[in-house]
From TrEMBL:
Note: In the RecBCD complex, RecB has a slow 3'-5' helicase, an exonuclease activity and loads RecA onto ssDNA, RecD has a fast 5'-3' helicase activity, while RecC stimulates the ATPase and processivity of the RecB helicase and contributes to recognition of the Chi site.
Protein's organism: Idiomarina aquatica
Annotated RecBCD enzyme subunit RecD N-terminal domain residues: 19-129
Family matches, as PANTHER family: DNA HELICASE B (PTHR43788:SF6), DNA2/NAM7 HELICASE FAMILY MEMBER (PTHR43788)
Protein name: RecBCD enzyme subunit RecD
Enzyme class: isomerase
Keyword terms of this UniProt record: ATP-binding, DNA damage, DNA repair, DNA-binding, Exonuclease, Helicase, Hydrolase, Isomerase, Nuclease, Nucleotide-binding
GO molecular function, one term: single-stranded DNA helicase activity
GO terms for biological process, alphabetical: double-strand break repair via homologous recombination
Pfam family, one: UvrD_C_2
Residue span, UvrD-like helicase C-terminal domain: 575-622
Protein family (similarity comment): Belongs to the RecD family.
EC number assigned by the record: 5.6.2.3
Known role: A helicase/nuclease that prepares dsDNA breaks (DSB) for recombinational DNA repair. Binds to DSBs and unwinds DNA via a highly rapid and processive ATP-dependent bidirectional helicase activity. Unwinds dsDNA until it encounters a Chi (crossover hotspot instigator) sequence from the 3' direction. Cuts ssDNA a few nucleotides 3' to the Chi site. The properties and activities of the enzyme are changed at Chi. The Chi-altered holoenzyme produces a long 3'-ssDNA overhang and facilitates RecA-binding to the ssDNA for homologous DNA recombination and repair.
Length: 634
């Protein structure tokens, strides 16, 4: 923008819309307010920015942050801006609403400062909401309060005995957080179980379900109806598989024979949240809601960090008030791309416990636990944290990848630098590798791709189906993740480059093309995030796309493959690379993270932590100048 031009809201709306800086829906909101008679540029600008923030996953616009650093708060101009010389938010604010003072919005047509009105915008202190999101937040607060206040009756003596059977007693004075979590979750109608990778969330949930069923069966009541769900199909399938495996190992333990009836009353039946709540075609509503609640007694939602605020509202409306609702997830992972960091907000402060003395004494007594250290006790701790337990010890995720992930999560700069330096010095079999390269044309990247992408030979398998299943399986061994979609280090560019390296056009159909579904398709029974691979039919050469079929089981004789014609797949993209957001809920043996060559607000610690924790055995960090500023880029 040149100094001689005075930016106007109209200029900005047009430029920003054309440049894809904002969404059409953001512009539509401003136009709607104008049609309703709102002329105050501050209000129009505020509504535009509040709507823009929703598009970025934030339910609220903090006006103080906006005043302090408008461009950073709104992440505009965007990274890899190709739109040239647009007006910036800072320039426009200077013109229309200097300092973005909240007081300017008070007593205007479209802004409600009480939360009780009808206006489209709600201003509480410096927090500006679109009314819908304000109402969602208030609904969740009130609904959870009701669930938290209403404690179920628990046979404490029986629970004490069950916990003693299901969990090892604490050696030395070590706190067994899993045991405490199980006790705490039985005690409450609403609870949250959070922890990093491999901290035993599923291990604990299976024992929780056992304890609940045991309590119920001992009273002579019918077993509890259990609903297991997750935001994506893949996460739901993984939950079901892990529960099945854990349950099997419990059933095989002779010392637990007294709990057999409780084990038998647990049916692993993981579904996507959409399927659990019942999708209605062309509607944001679900079949199950407050008028038609789920017929269930226990609802477990795994990977809850991916759940947005609208889904949380739908879940609460559909979950009967008598039921136990348990959210499970890693609070430090990225929040949903849609608005609202539900799990993160519920768990804020969970690292420090903040347990009331009454919570602590109940837990210590029932879980027969050594005393909790004083730093976890806080008489003034918020009520929600009495319902949260954080698992703190990983059973499977350790070594250099975990050390780097934890250093990033806790922002330990020296440790990050040290971990990267170790990786830089290490031999090639070290689990973390850094490829500090200027461009994706670097030979090291080509080699990484050639070595990593599995290539199975049809001739090595007895049948075509076996070959397809093995290829689908091998496809989860190596995955490239990107921070961004666009730009030279973004998902699209990386997919194209990998295609070039493999000698294919990654945007067309060919034998071996891996694709990810980007929108739920209920007709085809495919979920957003499902991954398939195109195969040439051995008989007539036509391409068909194979997806793993979760309903596979040897008793029903299904092949374990769902075949779909490419022409029926309308929302897909090639998936040699996917964004870190899309990778949530999945793990890969070798994870490659391609990082942009400059700092961007997108490169949050949550994004890095989420990407790195997808790596099961190997992690390769790829980018330009990764060591600059003493490793701060990572
Ligand atoms: N207390 C324990 N004693 C022995 N093994 C355990 C214990 N807790 C967890 N495990 C084992 O550690 C592994 C990881 O546990 P689990 O899958 O429950 O973790 P998670 O937190 O659900 O992992 P993810 O991050 O993959 O969701 C499993 O093999 C589980 O059986």
């Amino acid at each position: 923008m040149t100094d001689t031009l005075v930016p106007t809201l109209e200029d900005a709306l047009q430029q920003w819309r054309d440049a894809n800086w904002i969404r059409s829906i953001d512009v539509a909101l401003v136009e709607l307010l104008q049609q309703a008679g709102e002329q105050n540029p501050a209000v129009l600008l505020a509504s535009l920015f509040a709507s823009h923030q929703v598009g970025r996953g934030h339910t609220v616009l903090h006006l103080n942050a906006l005043a302090e650093n408008p461009n950073h708060t709104l992440a505009l101009p965007p990274v890899n801006n190709t739109a040239g010389d647009c007006v910036t938010p800072a320039e426009l604010l200077e013109q229309c609403w200097p300092k973005a003072e909240p007081s300017v919005l008070e007593s205007t047509l479209c802004v409600d400062t009480t939360g009780e009105g009808q206006q489209p915008l709600v201003l509480i202190n410096d927090q500006l909401y679109l009314r819908r999101y304000y109402l969602y937040e208030r609904f969740i607060e009130a609904d959870l309060k009701q669930r938290m206040d209403d404690e179920p009756v628990v046979n404490e003596e029986l629970l004490q005995q069950t916990l003693a059977l299901l969990f090892a007693s604490s050696a030395d004075d070590k706190i067994n957080w899993q045991r405490l979590a199980c006790a705490n979750t039985v005690k409450h109608r609403f609870s949250v179980l959070t922890g990093g990778p491999g901290t035993g969330k599923t291990y604990t949930v299976v024992r929780l379900l056992t304890a609940l069923q045991h309590q119920t069966l001992k009273l002579g009541l019918p077993p509890l109806r259990i609903s297991l769900a997750a935001p994506t199909g893949k996460a739901a399938a993984r939950l079901r598989e892990s529960i099945e495996a854990e349950l099997k190992s419990l059933k095989d333990t002779s010392a637990l024979a007294s709990l057999t009836a409780a084990f038998d009353a647990i049916t692993p039946n993981g579904k996507t949240l959409h399927r659990l709540l019942g999708v209605m075609p062309n509607s944001r509503q679900f079949k199950h809601n407050e008028r038609n609640p789920l017929r269930t007694d226990v609802v477990i939602v795994d990977e809850a960090s991916m759940m947005d605020i609208e889904m949380m509202v739908a879940l609460l409306k559909a979950t009967p008030k008598h039921a136990r609702l348990v959210l499970i997830g890693d609070k430090d992972q990225l929040a949903s791309v849609e608005a609202g960091a539900v799990l993160g907000n519920l768990c804020a402060g969970a690292d420090q416990g903040h347990y009331h003395p009454s919570t602590v004494s109940w837990l210590e007594r029932v879980a027969q636990s050594p005393s909790l250290p004083r730093e976890f006790i806080d008489a003034d701790g918020p009520q929600r944290l009495q319902h949260v337990v954080m698992l703190r010890e990983s059973r499977r995720f350790f070594g250099p990848i975990a050390d780097l992930a934890n250093a990033i999560n806790y922002q330990q700069q020296e440790q990050i630098t040290e971990e990267l330096a170790k990786a830089g010095r290490a031999e090639s079999d070290y689990p973390v590798r850094v490829l500090d390269i200027d461009s994706l044309d670097a030979p090291e990247f080509k080699q990484l791709v050639r070595d990593g992408i599995p290539r199975l030979r049809r001739d090595d398998f007895d049948s075509f189906d076996d070959y397809v299943k093995a290829t689908l399986d091998a496809n989860t061994q190596f995955q490239i993740l990107t921070a961004l979609r666009e730009g030279p280090w973004g998902m699209k560019a990386v997919n194209q480059k990998v295609g070039e390296i493999l000698g294919v056009n990654a945007n067309s159909w060919y034998d071996g093309r891996p694709v990810m579904v980007t929108k739920n398709d209920y007709g085809l029974k495919l979920n957003n995030g499902d991954i398939g691979i195109a195969f040439a039919d051995p008989e007539h050469g036509h391409l068909r796309v194979a997806f793993p079929d979760d309903s596979d089981n040897t008793q029903t004789g299904k092949s374990g493959i769902r075949w779909v014609l490419p022409s029926r797949l309308t929302h897909i993209e090639t998936v040699y690379a996917m964004t870190v957001h899309k990778s949530q809920g999945s793990e890969f043996k070798h994870t490659v993270m391609v990082l942009p060559d400059h700092d961007t607000p997108v490169m949050s610690k949550e994004l890095l932590y989420t990407g790195i924790t997808r790596a099961k055995e190997r992690l390769s960090l790829v980018g330009n100048n990764l060591f600059s500023q003493g490793g701060k880029r990572v």
